[in-house]
Design goal:
single chain; mainly alpha; Fumarate Reductase Cytochrome B subunit; 8 helices
Amino acid sequence: MSTHKLRRVFVWELPVRIYHWVNALAIVVLCITGYLIGKPPAIMFGGEAHERYLFGWIRFIHFVSAYIFLFNFVFRIYWGFVGNKYADWKNFIPTNRKYFREMWEVLRIDILQLKGKEHLSVGHNALAGFTYFMMFLMFLVQIITGFGLYAAMSHSWVAGMFAWAPYLFGGDFALRQIHHITMWLFILFAIIHIYLVFYHDYVEGRGEVSSMSGGWKFIEEEVFVEEPQTEKKPA
């Protein structure tokens, strides 16, 4: 007879969890302030503009969040080389056939909602890892386009590193369009990401949601229990 036992496994280290929540907060702030910068609200005010400085504060918050987003992203790349096996960069880039097979299995689970094949990996499953890799590329595009736009109005050496971006992308207008479209891709990803996290937490029951706060997940192990033998009564 076999039964199932749950074993706790420490998956997400503290630096990974901090990165995740700082990144999520920075993206939310960047999307809100970025949208307002792209379409400034028409706020009627009878006094002098400097008395409110609303748009200035929106831009300031956007730029500060952009620096936090940049350095947080750089830290995550670094941690992909020094962190534990669940944070390793190899989890995000397809390197073998097994990776692609697991991606296909996860797609079948997510789309067809199959039961009994949920426990494919402890950390990121292959599809999630590859999706995050694509998001990292989008992060890079957003950093290049954002700081490329900022370089013309900033004396910061960080922004100055991206002064070449307008020339590469064909000017500030094209740069701004790419930056704006990528923002909407972030929003679309966030909606799908939140849904799938809760869905996998429900299907797998391994603490998917709470793991990004405490770092622990649960693995279901099959344990074989020997059935007690009953003595046969003499006829």
